[in-house]
Amino acid sequence: YNSNYPSIEDLIERAKQKVPRFAFEYLDGGCNEDVNLMKNTREIREVELIPQYLTRHIKSDMSTELFGHTYDAPFGIAPVGLQGLMWPNAPEILAKAALKHNIPFILSTVTTMSIERASELTEGRAWFQLYHPAKEEVRDDILKRAEAAECPVLVLLSDVPTFGFRPRDIRNGLAMPPKMTLKNIMQIMGRPDWALRTLVHGQPNFETLKPYMPKGLDLKQLGLFMDQTFSGRLNEYKVAAIRDKWKGKIVLKGVASEEDTEKAIKLGLDGIIVSNHGGRQLDAGESTIAPCTRIAEKYQGKIKIMMDSGLRSGPDIARTLARGAEFTFMGRSFMYSVAALGNQGGDHIIGMLKTQLQQVMEQICCERVEDFPKFDIRK
Ligand code: HOC
Q1: Dihedral angle sign, alpha carbons of residues 177, 256, 69, 266
Q2: Where would you tag: which of 129, 146, 227, 249 has the fewest CB atoms within 10 A of its CB?
Q3: What atom of ligand 1 comes closest to residue 79's alpha carbon?
Q4: Relative to the CA of 164, which ligand 1 atom is closest?
Q5: Domain 8-375, CATH number (from 3.10.129.10, 3.20.20.70, 3.30.499.10, 3.40.50.970)
Q6: Does ligand 1 come within 6 angstroms of the Cβ of 166?
């Protein structure tokens, strides 16, 4: 990793200098008053671990088996929408880094890289996150493409029955429908590296969705198209229909309650990601570590339990695993790093997280990832 940026705060500062403000705020912001966003990290950091010093020497092993693959570490890259807006080519940079470091990469339906390209860059290992389309024929076509691209895991997004209320995006014209204001254009002019790279790579577009989008939409029409295409709540019938069609693993993302966990188990799903969409949807909601702790205590062994939202460091990953999550994901941390360091960003943040996590494991004398819960101070 790059020793000039040894913390997320360093990467955030650098990213702010490199990316136009409207794009940075889209990445950085939560919803409403950002209460849920801040609570996520704060409450993860209340988890304390017991160190063990006068004991035999151990070599900690971070490798983690998940859905038939052994990953190098218990964390992966969460799906993030519109990545190419934050940094041109960001999803490509992260997909390549994920392959190199042998960690999972999840592609969002609404990001700026196609399923096919994600699969090519990760040698068929990219997971795919489905925003459930309003039209069944669009859903079925996307599922066929994900299957043809050999995506091993389908992630169903459950927590966007409506888009969250995000004041910064509204102010910046990034709401639905979006608009390009003079203010945004001025911000772009102040970030020449970003502007030049955007010219080289082309304007970011919803690559996976391109085949279903009418050509030549202006920004307002694009906003309306996205709104119509993805409006609607995911329900048990829609999930059951997908379970019947999809042969690979299915994970439900956006779980924040015991009720939804039970439904996921009943529907025969393989995993859940306890998540509140990085605090971007329900400002009045709980942090993720709270339901994750309860869900892990009650349903461990019945379904794979993973968590995202709020983790920013190796110690945060350790704290979350100690509360019973079997795997973790992060979205913003990876994007801050790519926005700050471009092509080096993926390598940098993964290397840093691996080093930090290894250090925590050796402090507490945790030999394997599944041993983490033993070191939770509550137990
Ligand atoms: C029109 C595209 O899930 C978020 C993401 C992506 C939303 C993309 C909307 O910001 O919550």
Answers
A1: negative
A2: 227
A3: 3
A4: 11
A5: 3.20.20.70
A6: no
H helix intervals, the chain = 8-18, 21-28, 35-44, 83-86, 90-101, 115-121, 136-148, 167-171, 182-189, 192-201, 219-230, 236-245, 258-266, 289-299, 314-322, 332-341, 345-364
Dig out the tokens for 229 from the structure: 């295409």
Neighbours of 306 (CB within 10 A): 27
Residue 349 structure tokens: 């943040």
105/75 Cα distance (integer angstroms): 10
Among this protein's residues, is 277 annotated catalytic? yes
Centre of ligand 1 from the C-alpha of residue 160, in Å: 9
Angle between helices 182-189 and 192-201 (to 10 degrees): 100
- For tokens 């409403």, the residue is 32
- Can you give the pLDDT at residue 113? 97
71 backbone φψ class: left, alpha, beta (φ>0; ψ -120 to 50): beta
285's CB contacts (< 8 A; 6+ apart) are 36, 256, 276
The string of DSSP codes covering 191-248 is: -HHHHHHHHHH-S---TTTGGGSPTT--HHHHHHHHHHHH-S---HHHHHHHHHH--S
pLDDT, block means (10 residues), the chain with 379 residues: 95 97 96 98 98 90 98 98 95 98 97 97 98 92 98 97 92 75 90 93 90 83 81 90 97 98 98 98 98 98 98 98 98 98 98 98 97 94
CA distance 363 to 213: 52
Report pLDDT for 67: 98
Q: 3-state class of 348 per DSSP?
A: helix
β-pair type (69-71, 64-66) = antiparallel
Q: Ligand 1: distance of its center to the CA of 81 in Å?
A: 5
Q: Which two tokens stand for residue 206?
A: 């919803």
Nearest C-alpha neighbor of 274 from the set 283, 259, 38, 266: 259
Structure tokens at 195: 């502007």
At 62, list the tokens.
């971070």
